[in-house]
Amino acid sequence: MLTTTDSVSLTGPLDSAALRRSAAPLTVAVDDAARSRLDRGRRLFHGLRHSESGDAPAIYGATTGFGALVGYAGRTDEADQCDNTLAHLGAGQGPDLPKEICRASLLLRTWSLAQGLSGVSAEVVDRLAAMFATTFVPAVPRYGSVGASGDLIPLAYATQALRGRGHAYVDGRRMPAADALTAAGLRPLTLDGRDALALVNGTSVTTAALALAHDSVRAAHRSLMDLTCLLADLLGCDPGFLDGDLLRAYGHSGAIDVGAQMRGTLAGTVPSGTRPLQEPYSIRCSPQLLGAAEDALRYVDGVVAADLGGVSDNPLFFHDDAENGMAGRGKVVHGGNFFGQPAAFAADLLASVTAQLGNLAERQLDLLMDPARNGGLPPMLATVPGAQHGLQGVQLATTAFVAEIRRCATPAGMQSLPTNLHNQDVVPFGTQAALRSYDMAELLGLLCGSLALGLRQTVHVGGRRPTSPACAGLLDALIEAIPPVDPDRPLDADVRAAAHLLATRDLPRPDVPGHGPAAGRTPGT
Question: pLDDT band at 517, cuts 50/70/90?
Answer without folding.
Answer: very low
